[in-house]
Input
Amino acid sequence: MKALCWHGKGDIRCDSVPDPQIEDDRDVIIKMSACAICGSDLHLMDGYIPFMEKGDILGHEFMGEVVEVGRGNTKLKVGDRVVVPFTICCGECSQCLKGNWSVCERSNRKAENATKAFGYPTAGLFGYSHLTGAYAGGQAEYVRVPYADVSPIIIPNGISDEQALFLGDIFPTGWMAAANCEIEPTDIVAIWGCGPVGQFCIKSAFMQGAARVIAIDNVPERLALAAAAGAVIINFDEIDGTIPDHIKDMTAGHGADKCIDAVGAESHATASFDAIIDKVKAATLLGTDRPHVLRTAIMACRPGGIVSVPGVYGGFLDKIPFGAAMNKGLTIRTGQTHVNRYSLDLLRRIEEGEIDPSFIITHRATLDQGPELYETFRDKKDNCIKVVLTA
Ligand SMILES: NC(=O)c1ccc[n+]([C@@H]2O[C@H](COP(=O)([O-])OP(=O)(O)OC[C@H]3O[C@@H](n4cnc5c(N)ncnc54)[C@H](O)[C@@H]3O)[C@@H](O)[C@H]2O)c1
Ligand SMILES: [Zn+2]
Ligand SMILES: [Zn+2]
Output
């Protein structure tokens, strides 16, 4: 079958690889009908996440039709149309039972790598390195789904692939980032990053009742989409002074009650001293992440506020203003998304027409064109915001 494979930094190829097989009674095999490229895939492409191996199949946003079912799986049957959440969950360990799905204690087959990096293992993830289980990803014609009696979401007729696909990652990710802010009706929520995740943060913040949303990026078409959703926008290339000061000016001195970092490890900033140092350190392997946005969000947040971090980080972050976080009494919440917590509620919201997640898609192509589309998405060429691939 065809699959998009990682061959090194910046080197993604559409390879011919063996079809997956059922390995466990609870598995299913799906025939992929739609998959997407995520900002998290760019961290792999750009070499920010360790433990990748040549030939690893990428992709963790995917859906399709069940074509084979393991003998012990009583939830799914051949012909079901499912979206597969990116976190792999056993459904039985103490974290799954608590609803902390993205830190399932059993699904990471390479638990020793995660334990070395994080002190404990975290859940297995599709197509996301040997740190998170070395599972083949979903940017492929067929995908093996382990523990498939737990997380896959059965999609009813009447909802298209493009409307359903993002239930597996970026919609619940934006939703959880907003939920982690415990939004109150008077809240001003500042959101860094207007990529796909940032866009779902904006929609979710409004759906959860925010008074105002301020969205920050420097890509015009992404800022325009944020403005269309009702956010007040800041192009960080076009302002004088710092972002926290600018937010105060826009809000009569009030500032942001809640701050969301929807950028993660690869933030850029044109003329900021800390960002230049991060870039040099990352390029010379002296540092792992470029946490300029996290620093800014902590500084911008009002005392007593919440900083919510859906943006992915990989390692040890430098020069975080923890004194500001401590003395202002901030709450910091983060995590890979506990997708299953939100699946049925968000599916219902799509069915009832409260949101149509396909608003984000700008590019449609096939797996063969995947390597080129990775570059288009990374470099934000051709007004690209979100790529959906079919087989
Ligand atoms: N927590 C989770 O479970 C989860 C799930 C999906 C994605 N993510 C993460 O969310 C982040 C965003 O994903 P995406 O798909 O939207 O990626 P993306 O790369 O398309 O978007 C990132 C956006 O941030 C902007 N940006 C860069 N530097 C900035 C700065 N200094 N200030 C403001 N904006 C800045 C970029 O211009 C871009 O539009 C990534 O880190 C991704 O790994 C996390
Ligand atoms: Zn993702
Ligand atoms: Zn579990």
Notes: Residues 196-207 form the longest helix (12 residues).
